[in-house]
Amino acid sequence: MGGVVAADDEEPRHGPSFPKAIEELKEALSSEQVTTDPKQLLAYAQSVLYHEHLQGQPHAVVIHVRSTEDVVKVVHIARKHLVAVVPYAGGTSLEGNVSAPSSGSICVDLSGLNKILEINESDADVVCQAGVTWNDLNEQLKMKGIPLFFPLDPGRNATVGGMIATGCSGTNAMRYGTARGEWILNVTVVLPSGEVIKTRRRARKSSAGFDLTKLFIGAEGTLGIVTEATLRLAPVLPTRVAIARFPDVQTATNAVCDVLNRGPAIQCVELIDELGVKVLNHYNSASSEEREPWPEQVTLFLKLQGCPFSMLPMPASIEQIMRFHGATSYRLSQSECEDEQIWDERRNGLFAALAYKEGSKGWITDVCVPVSRLPELITSAKGYFKELGITAPIAGHVGDGNFHALVLYNPDDPGEVTRAREAVARITKRAIELDGTCTGEHGVGQGKRKWLEEELGQGTVDLMRTIKQTLDPDGLFNPGKVCSSFLALTRLAFGCELLLCIAHSQSQKRTRLRLTLVIPCSDIIKLFFSPLLYAYHAFRVACRVVISGLTISFPVVPMPKRTSGTSTYLWRGVR
């Protein structure tokens, strides 16, 4: 038996010589790079902030790689023994992005790839390894006196590799965009074949061929493992922080839209709802530096940005717009120290919420809609929470329509867990109905995979699966994430393989099964069969059997794929 399952209800399987794979890893790498300690295996199978329903089983082995070459060695051994490979670095992901398959896998720990390889101040870019955290990168630039920074700012201790894998963003997204913008100039990737590629050169722009860099951004390690990246940097500009309070989300959003349309340079606009402010007050009251409680109103945190000359009139113009739209108060910070104190309050929102209800865990949502639809979505979310009896403070990157609700629940109360799951599902569905997305910045992972087809459509997700199956025909790279869907059923005679593709449609409430036959053949045999294969391709002949909602498609469309010394045809089933 071979390959790895990616469907929700299936058990991943690996080759029978799994212990042999571990022995070969120990031989190929130094002994201290190979970990089989049970506690470590479980720790690496989940993120720091995980939900029980996304908790992975222990890996079979954790490999602490030190170079791209180490990753290549791991991949070759994994391919030989048909073992799943799961990349891991900072462990800060939130949607089960690094959860281990339940039968075990090789966890590739990239945190040791933490070197900044090259700083090009004149070109405003930096070359670094995937295990570098964005905090450390910016701190190193600051220590060297370089007036540049990497502006993407997700959770603390997020690594460059993880940021690329999830297509991250953060509080700065309104001003600087996301990882899917032009901040990642190129990546060095180890493919499932073991081949190493670099997606492009270091030039600021290029129109040479496909944009393969973006292919790996947001792929969550399912298409390849990123080991290095060239990142674009931005100049450090002066900032000022302000707080504005509003009677409701609608008036706050109207003010933000007006500011954005008028053009003042705002780096961040963050929103916290009434409950979120109450949570911050509660958290602050227990700290050693207690402040006066804030009014429990919808609150905007604004970070104004610009050159010293442009900063002079900006605060007054922002205040005028805020008050025009009904702000009950507006206050500009008076010092850099106060700037930090105010922004720390926003950063502490997650930890404050987790401490609000003793014994509770937090289920962090992540959805995004057009900015004008944000009030409607938040109003719907609050209605769901009230109906289900859920406590969930809301914080959002209101400048780009992205918001998070931290759904608090007692993990020992099955009914409360069910209600929390229902609340998250309703919010996600509502976001898609409002022309939004099931995930603004946390990635798909396992937690949002069932919503992907409803958001993007079946054809788009099928195209993703085609790309996945082309690059990773054995389905070994981070199985079960995004849209992975392969299970190799068995190896047949003469090197042939029979694969099963499992595709679940949340919107249509059905599961499709596809059989794929992999036939290695010589060039002579390929020439003999090519006309027949491409005739099938041209006429789109397909045989389908529908049994109780399950559609079984027998493969007919050939997809040529070159392998070393042979030509392999993947016959891919079509609907």
From TrEMBL:
Cell compartments where the protein resides: Mitochondrion
Record keywords, A-Z: FAD, Flavoprotein, Mitochondrion, Oxidoreductase, Transit peptide
Domain (FAD-binding PCMH-type): residue spans on this chain: 54-236
Pfam families membership: FAD-oxidase_C (PF02913), FAD_binding_4 (PF01565)
GO BP: lactate catabolic process
Main location: mitochondrion
InterPro entries, sorted: FAD-bd_oxidored_4_C, FAD-bd_PCMH, FAD-bd_PCMH-like_sf, FAD-bd_PCMH_sub2, FAD-linked_Oxase-like_C, Oxid_FAD_bind_N, Vanillyl_alc_oxidase_C-sub2
Reactions catalysed, as given in the entry: (R)-lactate + 2 Fe(III)-[cytochrome c] = 2 Fe(II)-[cytochrome c] + pyruvate + 2 H(+)
UniProt key word Flavoprotein: yes
Keyword hit for Hydrolase: no
Reported cofactor(s): FAD
Any GO MF annotation of the entry: D-lactate dehydrogenase (cytochrome) activity
GO cellular component terms attached to this protein's record: mitochondrion
Record EC number: 1.1.2.4
Protein name: D-lactate dehydrogenase (cytochrome)
Origin organism lineage: Eukaryota, Fungi, Dikarya, Basidiomycota, Agaricomycotina
